[in-house]
Specification:
- The protein contains 14 helices and 16 strands.
- With about 525 residues, the chain is α+β, with helices and mostly antiparallel strands.
- Among the domains are: about 110 residues, PAS domain (Beta-Lactamase); about 60 residues, no CATH class; about 140 residues, Alpha-Beta Plaits.
- Strands 1, 2, 3, 4, 5 and 6 form a six-stranded antiparallel beta sheet that branches. It has a five-stranded antiparallel beta sheet with strand order 8-7-11-10-9. Strands 13-14-12-15-16 form a five-stranded mixed beta sheet, sandwiched between helices.
- Strand 5 and strand 6 form a beta hairpin.
- The longest helix is centred in the N-terminal third of the chain and has 70 residues.
- It is elongated.
C-alpha cells in the first residue's frame, strides 16, 4: 500500500493563504469600485466645466459682435442722411476705425459694391469693388464667415445696410476684423487661454478656425470632427469624442447665435487619467499600512482559529456589500482571538462603507457650494415624477455675475457663489432641496408645494439676497422663474425648461424679480 507524501502546508499556513487571498480580493474590489466612481466623477466634472467655459465665452463673443453691429448701425444712420457727402463718409469711417480696437478697417460701399470711403487710408481701398457681396443683396445686418480680403488678409466682415430717410437702399458700412491681427475679439479670446493640453477655439459655420491657442491653426478648415459638428448643429452641450488627430477629448461647446459660430472648450482624456492615477496612488498608500497590520494579525491568530475562521474569511471577500456588517456580527466569537478578528473585519466593513458612502455623496454634491449638483437634482426629480408627487421648481440666476469675476477675480466670485448657497439654505424649508446646476445658475426644488407657496419662497429668497452685504462685492441681485408640476403633467425636462424660460423673462424685464408661470 503506497503512502502519500506528507503535505508540506499546515493548517496555519493554509488558513493564512486563504485569508490573504480573501483580503486581497476584497481590497482589489474596493480599489476598483473607488477607481470607477472617481473616474466617472472626474470625467463628468471636466465635461461640465468645459461646457460652462464654452457657454461663458460664447456669451462674451455674442456681446462683442452685437456691440460691433450697434456701432455700425449708428454709423449707417449718420451717413444715410448725407450719403453724397464724401467728406462725411470718410470722417465717419475714420471715426469708427479710431474709436476702439473693434475693427482693423472700416469702409463704405455704394449699392453697386464700389468702395467710396475707407479707413485707414493706407489700405488704398477707395474705388475698388467689394469682394464679399452677399451683404449687398441681403440688405440686412450681416456677420460673415472668414475669407481673404482685397488686401489679402483673413478677415471677418461685419456690415450694416445704409438707407436714406425715404427707405431707399444706398449701400453698406462695414468693419473688418483681421483674424491674424490684434483686435477686441482677439483680446477677448486671449483671456481664455488654458493649460496642460486643454484649449479653447472658435470656428465659423464653414468650419474655418477663427481663433486657436496655436496661431498656426487660425484659418484652417477643420475636417471630420464630432465636437465641431455638434457645436455648429446642436448649440450647447458636452461630448466625449476623438478629435481630428485621433486624441480622445472631453469637450464642452456652445453656439454664438448671431453669427452661427461655434465655441469649443476641450481637454484630453489623458489629463483626467493622470489625475486619477495620482489619486489612486495616494489611496493605495493609505490602505497599505492597514493591510500590513491585518496580515500580521492574521498570521498570529492563524494557529488558534477554528471553525469561525471560514465564515469570517467568506465575509472578508464581501466587505463592500451592504449587509456585510450584519453577516459578520452574526458569527459567534467563543474566544478572544475569534472576537478580535471579527472586530477587525467589522471595523474594515464600517470604514469601507463610509468611504463608499462619502464617494456617493461627493458624486451628488457640488464641490464649491456644498449644494446638491445637477445629478442629484435629476435623481430626486425622477423619483418625485415616478411617485406622482407634485413639486415646484425655482430657477435662479445671479444678475451680472460676470462683472463680479471681471472686477474682483474668480476667487471673490467663488465666495459670492458660496454666500448665495448659504442664503438659499437659510431661506429653504426643511424638505426643500437647493441645487447648483452650473456657473451662477441655481435651482430650488419644493416638494408638495403650491404655486403661491413657491412664489412666496422665491420672493423671500430674492429679497434676502438683495439685502445681503457680500464681502468685497457688496449688494447683488438675482432673477428667478417659478414653475409648478402636478401629477399627469409634462415631463421633468419640460418643467425645468419652463422655469428657465420664466427666468429669462425676469432677465428681459429688468432683472431682480420673480416671474411665475400662469396659474
Amino acid at each position: 500500500m503506497t503512502t502519500r507524501p506528507r503535505p508540506k502546508l499546515n493548517l496555519r499556513i493554509l488558513i493564512l493563504i486563504f485569508v490573504l487571498l480573501s483580503a486581497i480580493a476584497t481590497l482589489a474590489n474596493s480599489f476598483w469600485v473607488t477607481f470607477k466612481i472617481q473616474k466617472q466623477e472626474l470625467i463628468e466634472n471636466a465635461l461640465d466645466v468645459n461646457e460652462a467655459y464654452a457657454a461663458r465665452i460664447a456669451v462674451s463673443v455674442e456681446q462683442v459682435l452685437n456691440s460691433d453691429l450697434d456701432k455700425l448701425r449708428y454709423g449707417a444712420v449718420v451717413i444715410g442722411k448725407s450719403f453724397d457727402d464724401k467728406s462725411l463718409l470718410a470722417e465717419e469711417a475714420e471715426r469708427l476705425f479710431e474709436q476702439d480696437a473693434s475693427f482693423n478697417s472700416v469702409l463704405v460701399a455704394d449699392a453697386a459694391g464700389t468702395i467710396i470711403a475707407s479707413a485707414p487710408g493706407s489700405l488704398h481701398l477707395d474705388g475698388k469693388t467689394l469682394q464679399h457681396k452677399e451683404p449687398l443683396s441681403l440688405r440686412a445686418p450681416k456677420i460673415s464667415n472668414a475669407f481673404r480680403s482685397i488686401s489679402g488678409h483673413l478677415v471677418v466682415f461685419i456690415t450694416q445696410p445704409v438707407f436714406d430717410a425715404k427707405g431707399t437702399y444706398l449701400g453698406l458700412i462695414g468693419g473688418s476684423v483681421r483674424l491674424e491681427q490684434s483686435n477686441t475679439l482677439q483680446a477677448l479670446m486671449d483671456t481664455n487661454v488654458r493649460k496642460d493640453g486643454a484649449h479653447v477655439y472658435l470656428v465659423d459655420s464653414a468650419r474655418r478656425v477663427l481663433y486657436h491657442s496655436d496661431p498656426e491653426q487660425i484659418g484652417n478648415v477643420v475636417g471630420k470632427d464630432w465636437v465641431v459638428d455638434a457645436a455648429l448643429s446642436q448649440g450647447a452641450g458636452t461630448l466625449q469624442a476623438m478629435d481630428e488627430k485621433g486624441v480622445e477629448m472631453l469637450a464642452g461647446f456652445a453656439k454664438v447665435s448671431s453669427s452661427g459660430w461655434g465655441v469649443i472648450s476641450q481637454q484630453p482624456l489623458g489629463n483626467i487619467q493622470a489625475v486619477l492615477r495620482h489619486t489612486m496612488a495616494k489611496v493605495a498608500q493609505g490602505i497599505a499600512p492597514l493591510a500590513l497590520f491585518g496580515i500580521m494579525l492574521i498570521w498570529w491568530l492563524g494557529a488558534r482559529i477554528s471553525a469561525p475562521l471560514s465564515r469570517l474569511a467568506d465575509c472578508a471577500k464581501r466587505l463592500d456589500t451592504p449587509d456585510s456588517y450584519e453577516r459578520i456580527s452574526a458569527i459567534p466569537a467563543r474566544y478572544f482571538e475569534s472576537w478580535q478578528i471579527r472586530r477587525a473585519l467589522l471595523l474594515g466593513a464600517t470604514l469601507l462603507q463610509e468611504k463608499i458612502g462619502k464617494l456617493n455623496q461627493q458624486a451628488q454634491t457640488d464641490v464649491l457650494t456644498g449644494l446638491a449638483n445637477r445629478r442629484a437634482m435629476q435623481d430626486i426629480l425622477s423619483r418625485w415624477y415616478d411617485a406622482d408627487k407634485a413639486f415646484a421648481v425655482v430657477s435662479m440666476d445671479i444678475d451680472h455675475f460676470k462683472r463680479v469675476n471681471d472686477t474682483f477675480g474668480h476667487g471673490v466670485g467663488d465666495e459670492t457663489l458660496r454666500a448665495i448657497a448659504e442664503l438659499m439654505q437659510q431661506n429653504s424649508r426643511v424638505n426643500d432641496l437647493p441645487c447648483r446646476v452650473g456657473g451662477e445658475e441655481f435651482v430650488l426644488l419644493l416638494p408638495n408645494s403650491s404655486l403661491q407657496a413657491a412664489t412666496d419662497v422665491a420672493e423671500r429668497l430674492r429679497a434676502s439676497i438683495e439685502a445681503a452685504d457680500i464681502y468685497m462685492v457688496g449688494h447683488i441681485t438675482v432673477s428667478l422663474g417659478v414653475a409648478l408640476w402636478r401629477p399627469g403633467g409634462d415631463s421633468v425636462s419640460a418643467v425645468l425648461e419652463r422655469a428657465d424660460q420664466l427666468l429669462y423673462q425676469a432677465k428681459q424685464s429688468g432683472r431682480n424679480r420673480v416671474v411665475v408661470q400662469p396659474s
